[in-house]
Amino acid sequence: MKLDAFYYFWEFLAEMTSKELRARYKKTSFGFLWMIINPILQMLVIGLVFSFFVKNQVDNYFMFLFIGLLTWSFFTLSLTKCTPSIFDQRGLIKKAYFPRLVIPLAILLSNYIHYIISLGLLLIVLLFVGKFTFTSLIYLLLTQIALLIFTIGLSLFTTAINVRFRDVNFFVQALLILWFYATPIVYPLSFIPEQYRGIWYINPLTGIIQLLQHIAAQSQLPDLNGFIANLLTSFVFLLIGVFIFQRESKNFDDWI
Amino acid sequence: MKSQVIKLTNISKLYTLHHEKPTLMERIVDGKDEDFYALKNINLSIAQGERIGLIGENGSGKTTLLKIITRITSPTQGSIVTKGRIVSLIDLNAGFHPDLTGIQNIFINGMVLGMRKKEILSKLERIIDFADISKFIDIPIYTYSEGMKLRLGFSVAIHTDPDIIILDEGLSVGDFEFQTKCQRYFNDYFKSGKTLIVCLHVLDFIKNNCDRVLIMKDGSIIADGPISLIDKYETHKI
Questions:
Q1: Entry pTM
Q2: Nearest residue on chain B to A90, judged by CA atoms?
């Protein structure tokens, strides 16, 4: 019986994720091809803009920037789409009891599939120029675990709280603008004076983005202690997120 | 003696009413939230095969009670034990994704109601047949008429093979043919000795189909007994 519920959960999640994906590309002539065209277009635009208009002070700036922006867009998209998701899907919530966790997780997963495809394209380029090693693979796995843990934890938290306090949605949108500049995406952390770098590591994305940039652009590795701190913070976010979500989800119906 | 399928013990449900005040200042000065008990200390047990009609004025707590039985919301106090698969036929038109096809929506809806994928696959043909929409099954739902959506929602819901059905208004919007189909389904359903809870303002359905009546008022069950209670209710004796 328990096992049945487990399989049911994953099947349901898979179905909802594919619904997310299908609904997004419905009525487009290219359909799922957009999942590949989109990142290639982005890559071209970023490459064009930054090789012509911006004087680079960072080695392999294009790669450096591209992997950071990709990761950021996964993070920001997940957060902005998850936060109001319970309200958006109130038709389902009011219809029957089912594990509410499926709703935000399906959004996260569909975003993650997009992200993985873009990342894969980038890796092909890296392999082609011979910059991808076994160590890179280990680093890559590490960043993905940390990124997922953090994004899931934070998204579940904002999703659950937003049901009762709709302000959260607006707050998140404003926060993300600030957060973008507070994360070393367009600039390397070495631009920040050394005594302040500790502050940057409060942000769990710092270490993740830095490690990814190292893989893609051979930039400096993140500070080890900083990265471990990031991992721990991410994990705490996951625990809090799941706990709050499960507690609040019993009464989502009362607020929507 | 028949086995109990639903048992509610000391159930209360508290809602917080949030009074909207036009300005921020007023909200700070006197924007207190008010607590409101939609259900007060409900004790109820329902045996297998009982067909219950739930009546009462608007706002007497009927819907809240049904939501607690279906676990759509949870009680503030008290405990609830249920046995078997419960399906609610409330809001049958809701929860469809307009851009996805009938088939895709059958899967999502079926899973929302607790079915496994292979179960839906094995019943797919019967679901489509009952809803009578085979011609439109691979067309996006937004092109469906309200009646088609209702039939599809109903068909998916009953094919979960529920042990307990919760019914609200709503089925009355279907056309005559659909109504007869529903009645036929319910006759078979009753024959198999399963449980029904109905909450309708059209008392005729309850008179024809139920064998026990619960009357609610202000969050409490004020009367519980045989179908003859309806007559008293109608003549305002309760």
A1: 0.89
A2: B95
